[in-house]
Amino acid sequence: MKPIVARRQRHRRRTTLAASTALGMAVIIAGCGQPREESASRAEPVELAQANSTSGSATPADPGTPPHPATPTAHQSAYRVRSDFGVALNADGGWAGAMNEAVRVPADQPFRLRIEIEHPDTAGTAGPYRLEWRRNGGAWDAVLAENFPQPAKADELEFETPPDPAGASWDWHQGDESALRWQETSAGGHLRFEPGGDAILALGRHDVHWEPVEIAARLRLPAGASTAGLVFHYRDALNHHRVDLEAGHGLHLVQMQDGEETRLATHRYAVQSGQWAELKVVLEDAETTVEYDDEALVFTERPPGPLDALRSGVFVPGGSALELRSVTIEGLPRSPRASIVAGAFRHGTDTADLLAGSDRPFAGGAGVSFARQAPARELPAQDDPASHTEWEFPLVIRHFADGAARNETGDRFEFRVLDADGHPVPAVATAAVTLEVPAGHLGGTFVETPARIGPWETAGGDYYFLMEPAETDNMLMAVKSSDGGASWREMDGEHRPATGDLEGFASVLDGDRIHMLHQTSDDVFYHVFLTADHPAQPDRWAVRDERLASPGEPPTQVADLAVRSDGSVVGVYGGPEKIRYRVRSAEGEWGPESVIDAGVGPKLSGPMLVRGRDDVIHLAYTGEDGTVWYRQLRPGGELTPRRLLADGLGTGTEEVGALVPLTYLPETETLSVIYRLADGTLWERRIGPDSAFSETVQVTRRAVVQNAVDSDQVGADAVGHGDTVHVLFIEAGTGRLFHTSRTAGESWTEPTLQVDGAQVQWVRGAVLGRGREQPVYGYMYDAGSDGGSGMNRFGTLPLLTQAGD
């Protein structure tokens, strides 16, 4: 499930919505009641060792003799940090340091914070507690519940097996489980709601601790049913909203207020009985958006009054029926500097007594997993009720966050506890950690469906890479390293391109300029970044958001470009059925658009370009029938006839990007074209200076991953060095990254393992240090973000020590 924000900006990542009308009631799916995710109190911390401290640097008291406040108030008596994120909640191990010790934690690597709170001589309730954080002594802010590395907030009810007889997945507010039946089918079965004479209303049960903003249901009206639908913003039986499906007529947005039903909007649509479709409702910025049948119908309304909650489900009036396959609720994901993530334990799991900061009796506590606050616990009522509790929070601190915010090595993060009234709990020692960004760690997220994106090396030895800060905040960043790839920071962020939606993307370094081509769902854009080598405007964006085409949305966004010796640019990009290209002159004028293979089959995608000798542009691309085609674009504008280079590629929609970036070897004037066949293996064909095709040569016996994360691309990269082609590839099933190489006339070397213990999902690289004694294959890889962020890393592979070089 992709995050809502990301899906709104990216191909195949969209939101939808829906509702239904009738005189009865509905099945409702309810998110748990929890506080809204706004910033908490900004009050200064109160510490026992240093009253009213604003620095958070109080000296911890002796943990064996914690001080007691003069007034009977709870206080934090100890904390401890765990580095072993997967250890059991109540295991006494996996600690990063001693009690009350501010340890170092790596960026983009979750850790756990355990806090002990001592309670005064009064019985009552402990909590619910929340956390705040501050960075380097700045302002305090709420610690939100935002997961990592995939930030999605989604909870899906899938009905793959018959529901239990008691209907435990539903709370019935009108009617009962006698209206619910399971229907087994070859597709796995589904629920059928058939109430008879009276309408039904049942609330589905979702165990979530965040506020939903979207509901999606896979449903249909069975034959003979007239109307039913989705209920949302449910407050009670007399106050809620619906989107009703009416067979043969359309969709209606309905408001029920104080028992009076009002139809707010009607949209005509041929709703077909017996046809499965997805119906979605999205609440955002006082707007309600409804989408139906794969966005065949989309409309947005602004109902009166704020809709600030999404309790939802299905409505079925008497005499009708509704069938349901799944229901999903989603929240709005974010990627803040620090957040509470899902832990290796269930939210609310009881804690044991592990910390030794208090000598008072232990009274419980809980683990907090992907929730904004800890659950409350009742303290024991006894003659001497003084006690202590323990609470554990799984946390992450990101290197890059929303807004391209960047945390750095040495940053000090402090955490304090707020009580049920939002007041800071005094502390013997403020919980603190110091951030460490490991060498070669970038974090952030890959641009989707990339051709070449770096790392690029300038004549001055700086490295550049193009990426996004977070899956939830799509923006193009040019990040730079001046220390051989050890550390990275964004350049000229205040002037970055405005266009997000970073899907089909390619770049080329030419002198002191990085040229980029970028296809969104609707348009194609060109950007230029000036590197540190530029004499007048180093490290600056020079061209931003220059739109060159609006070809209509292709099945997969794809783009590549090449730069000729005169500074002209050739750009190729996708269209609904064919790929197209345009040429930008050295003076900055785009020529007319040309459609490749117009009027002949098959449908095309997956183009790759590279410049060869005498400014000849080599072009390879894939057909939906599993073919690979090759052409040349000559300097005078001539496009040579297409030639079939290979067949036997996969024909699925996720297999169009079967080409590895093209590699041109200037020393032998040879082009290497590497592609993935349907069985997952890589194969190569070389094209010499006489344009003759070589025999096909198998590159890998291991299957290589395809479409690892919403990319429609093969998980491999290739570069040329001397007369040798080097390939990095991701093994299907394991996510391990391997290297192999081949010199002309020889066989591909036995693959050597480069990255293990990570589910690698993207890889792109380039030769760095050309002309030096020890050049390397520098590469960026995603170490397993699952479409999220925080896992981009830089690695190198020496090129002169590989067998076969």
Your description of this structure?
This protein has one helix and 58 strands. It is mainly β and about 800 residues long. It folds into three domains: about 5-30 and about 155-330, Exo-inulinase, domain 1 (Jelly Rolls, Sandwich); about 75-150 and about 335-435, Distorted Sandwich (Coagulation Factor XIII, Chain A, domain 1); about 455-800, Neuraminidase, CATH 2.120.10.70.
Structural class of the secondary elements? mainly beta
Q: Give the end-to-end Cα distance, rounded to a whole number of Å.
A: 43 Å
How many distinct folded domains? 3
Shape: globular
Question: What percentage of amino acids are in beta strands?
Answer: 35-45%
Number of strands: 58
- What is the CATH-assigned architecture of the largest domain? 6 Propeller
Radius of gyration: 30 Å
Number of helices: 1
Q: Mind summarizing the main beta sheet?
A: 8 strands, mixed
Helix content: under 10%
Q: Quick check: average pLDDT?
A: 89
By CATH's scheme, which homologous superfamily of the largest domain applies? Fucose-specific lectin
The stretches of 5 or more residues where confidence is low (pLDDT under 50) are 5-71, 801-805
Produce a short descriptive summary.
With 805 residues, the protein is an all-beta fold. The chain is built from 1 helix and 58 strands. The strands form 13 sheets. Strands 10-13-1-22-15-16-17-18 form an 8-stranded mixed beta sheet, with no helix packed on it.
